[in-house]
User: Fold this.
Amino acid sequence: MTGNMGLRERKKARTRQALVDAAIALFASKGYDETTIADVTAAADVSPRTFFVHFASKEDVLFDDPPLKLELFTAVLAHPGPDETPAQLLVRAFHSVLHSDTDLMGQSERVRANLILQTPALQAGAVRKVLEGQREIVRALLDAYPDTLDPVAAAALVGAMVGTLVGAITMLYSDAAVAARMAADPQRMRAELEAAISSTWHHLGGTG
Assistant:
């Protein structure tokens, strides 16, 4: 995608990425609460003013690039199969995202997950991001089935699947030994999350 950017856009993208990389490294080494915006801008060799061009707060840096891309979910949800039920389409969307090239156990993702688990100040922000994403998926599912689903039913379906992923990811990251095994074999992480989605689908009756 950067190949289609102009020089100005490429420079902005590089600056933004430099800020993210610097912040992640500092959060990991110093701790989130102990890291200041001045620390981040000094490490990225930019001014504090430049930081605020890209981000409103240091929390925004941490949540800048979630691994499970909403655009991938919505792209799948925009094309339901002729006989596909809402739940089947939703499961297919989750599986499609898990099979994308996203790095679920990369260094940045592990640092992000560990910081969220260990830092109460970040947990509210993480919940807010999950809820924002959930609402977007609900809207996409309603658009796919305007005559079949109402907002409550769509929210319940999406909530069940999002809750499954959040719960599974939290459990996998919470145990240091398990997280180390996942990092050593990223495909295992995908397999665990796929199994969690399939289990939820099974326990919901595999219908709807």
